[in-house]
Amino acid sequence: MNIAFIAHDKKKDDMVQFVIAYEQVLSGHQLYSTGTTGKRIMEATALKVHRCQSGPLGGDQQIGAMIAENQMDCVIFFKDPLTAQPHEPDITALIRLCDVYCIPLATNIATAEILLRGLQRGDFQWREIVKGKTKDAESS
Ligand SMILES: O=C(CO)COP(=O)(O)O
Asked: Which residues does the UniProt record annotate as the domain MGS-like (predicted)?
């Protein structure tokens, strides 16, 4: 599965703790992130993360584009609800695209735990079916 990790500054420590806790599970997947979040994850773990731009410089939009191309299976986005962000429209757009394409999205650590436990159990297999169907439609 392709999984995106994004954390606002005040949530980055939580994100690091989270990926350390689930490092073993995550090592079997392709990981993507916004710039600084990915840097923090790679410093704290042995995980390899494909880093996009930093959020305020377009990283949320790059991950949004992957969703629109059906290349993202899950988004873990630890949002800071108490701090205004200069790129708020990009954040809203990313969340909207998750809803448009029915991509599982966790915006806090409690939901993220449930999503990753589902991932461990194989609950995300339906994404492979959806991706397969999209590829078939594109090639016909
Ligand atoms: O701002 C962000 C998401 O909206 C996160 O970006 P960084 O991971 O580059 O800090």
From this structure: 1-140
Which pTM value belongs to this model?
0.95
**For the purposes of burial, counting CB atoms within 10 Å of the CB of 135, is it exposed (0-12), middle (13-18) or buried (19 or more)?**
exposed
Q: How far does the centroid of ligand 1 lie from the alpha carbon of residue 50, in Å?
A: 14
The predicted complex's ipTM stands at 0.98
Nearest Cα residue to 25 out of 115, 135, 139, 125? 115
Number of domains forming the structure of the chain: 1
Does 45 appear as a known binding residue? Answer: no
> What CATH number has the domain bearing residue 87?
3.40.50.1380
